[in-house]
Design goal:
Mean pLDDT: 79
Order of helices and strands: EHHEEEEEHHHEEHHEHEEHHHH
Strand order of the largest sheet: 2-5-6-7-8
Low-confidence stretches: 1-13, 60-68, 148-160, 351-360
Distance between the termini: 25 Å
Oligomer: single chain
Number of strands: 11
Shape: elongated
Radius of gyration: 29 Å
């Protein structure tokens, strides 16, 4: 049977973790599951099919049209949720920020994201109103410039709009979509950074705080979730985040071993956060975890045997014969592993707990 390895050596480059997290949570079912856990205690209120991807680049001319200086920020993930609470539908913007490390300025960063989301909506409304006025102008021009009785043009619209509406680009009836930003702390540590704006302010006179608008961080931190509460997730995200919780703990082996199988997306995500090695059958949609752990143990034994025999100066063919016979694997399997020697995973294990496999 042909197997593909997903090498799960602990990563030192944070960019790999961040990329893996973005790819994982871009999947609507995992994205929805994260928000359902945080907002609704695991109830399946947000459905994956109700989510639409949005451009995660936030650009807003927050100083008005006279100052042509845009402010731009890049969110990790942004989706539009059609909540469908009324016949017209209720739309909510959901932003997700996976963090592989703790960010002490995350409160201000998320506050800026949300502010830019609202500013962008106002800018879009203003553009929409201007276009409506132009379209009305054009329609009336086609109907006849001298027909004042039927004049409902953009000029007339501009006249009946108040100066306040004209200045803001919005009408008094325009409404914005609410924005909710959620941080996922994937560091495996409790979130010890500020969780609201007040926590980060240097202010001696506390009476002033009632005049300073606070901003609270929405956060899911696996290290702070009770083990039994991971069952509230409706997808394999619960398993993935439990692994994240114990990624820096020896218990991670036990956590992985408790799961019989998982999907490839979750296995790939776990790849970036642990030092384990999973294997799965080609074209399979599921990873048999117990099989993977057994094969990982077998691979480590074969690699150790190759390592010892290499040190003893044995020829490649002698190594193939000796190892394949002792460990009941095919000669081709041994030859493939010899190409990986010296293996970084093996070197890591040797420095932690050197051992010599029986019959090497």
């Amino acid at each position: 049977m042909f197997y593909i390895d997903i090498t799960l050596i602990r990563r030192t480059i944070l960019g790999e973790k961040d990329t893996a997290a973005k790819l994982y949570f871009a999947k609507p079912h995992f994205f929805a599951d994260a928000f359902n856990f945080f907002l609704f205690g695991g109830d399946k209120v947000i459905k994956p099919e109700e989510l639409s991807p949005m451009d995660s680049t936030e650009v807003a001319m927050i100083f008005g049209k006279k100052k042509n200086t845009p402010v731009q920020q890049y969110r990790d993930l942004l989706k539009l949720w059609n909540a469908g609470e009324t016949e017209d539908g209720v739309f909510v913007l959901l932003g997700l920020e996976p963090q592989s490390t703790i960010h002490y300025g995350m409160t201000v960063r998320n506050m800026l994201y949300d502010a830019l989301s609202y500013a962008t909506q106002i800018s879009n409304l203003s553009s929409l109103r201007e276009q409506e006025a132009k379209n009305a102008d054009n329609n009336n021009g086609d109907a006849g410039k001298n027909n004042n009785a039927n004049l409902t043009s953009g000029k007339r619209i501009a006249k009946i709009r108040s100066s306040e509406e004209f200045l803001s680009g919005m009408t008094k009836d325009d409404k914005l979509k609410p924005v909710i930003t959620l941080v996922l702390n994937l560091s495996g540590k409790p979130w010890k950074a500020p969780r609201n704006l007040y926590n980060i302010l240097d202010i001696k006179n506390k009476r002033l705080l009632k005049y300073v608008n606070n901003y609270h961080l929405n956060i899911v931190s696996p290290a702070e979730i009770k083990d039994e509460d991971f069952a509230k997730f409706s997808t394999s995200l619960g398993f993935a985040l439990k692994v994240v919780k114990y990624q820096n703990d020896d218990k991670v082996t036990e956590v992985i071993g408790e799961q019989e199988s998982t999907d490839l997306d979750t296995a790939s995500f776990i790849t970036a956060y642990t030092h384990f090695e999973f294997m799965y059958e080609k074209n399979s949609k599921e990873v048999n975890i117990m099989n993977g752990l057994e094969r990982r143990e077998q691979k480590m034994m074969v690699l150790s045997a190759i390592d010892i025999l290499k040190e003893l100066g044995k020829t490649d063919e002698d190594i193939v014969d000796l190892v394949s016979e002792r460990h009941q694997v095919t000669p081709d399997y041994v030859r493939d592993l010899m190409k990986e020697w010296p293996n970084p995973l093996l070197e890591k294990v040797k420095t932690q707990a050197p051992s010599i496999p029986a019959g090497a």
